[in-house]
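Protocol step 4 of 5: obtain the predicted structure for the target chain.
Materials: sequence only (see below). No template structures provided, no constraints applied. The aim of this step is simply to have a reference model before the mutagenesis design in step 5. Sequence pasted as it appears in the construct record:
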Amino acid sequence: MTRGRLDGRIALVTGASRGIGRAVARRFAAEGAELILLARTSGGLEEADDEIRAAGGARAMLVPLDLCQGDLLDQLGAALHERFGRLDILVGNAAMLGGLCPVGHYSPEVWEQVIATNLTANWRLIRSLDPLLRQSDAGRAMFVTSGVTEGTPPPYWSAYTASKAALEALVRTYAAELKRTNLKVNIIDPGAAATNMRAEAFPGEDPATLAAPDDITERFVELAEASYSESGGKVFV
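Step 4 output (structure tokens):
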């Protein structure tokens, strides 16, 4: 049998019930990874798992969890340690847009939810899973960002842009702290892809003009491979 590029590696993907996260999960499974899929909706996770098994992949561990439930994220590392003893790959993909409006028009509730989902949840994932990633002989973590952090920020995107800019700073700091370890951490910008979030941001856009999520998974596999040695960078798909 042909060995996949991620054969025997244990990977956790957040936002795995749809869009880019679901596509990455399918690709990782095809490359031989053992999957832990996390998202808010049980139905979406089950559909993703069905697709993976229909394609010949192994049954994934499904974790229906709202990333804003920080106390449950704190418990995740201990639960995975008991079951697996390590984690080889982390893909911090889950995010929310929070709508588009002038800076002063966001409600505190929406602003706080965007920051909690896009930034704080990833910090809590790092806090919970860092010991497991260090147990891997080649731990790899990647966090999904956006092109909105490049150049002049677009108007009306302040909550999302602020959360992603802060996420990039967090990941670079984390990577700098890991220089003497086997754990490599990077930021990945998937570009414009046909996802629900993209449709929310650009409702008049023809999705046929965009890349499909399944077409942008190669770079995720590259960053997940044990042979990938760069850390602290921003990788574009």
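Step 4 remarks: The mean pLDDT is 97. The CA atoms of residues 171 and 186 lie 7 Å apart.
Proceed to step 5.
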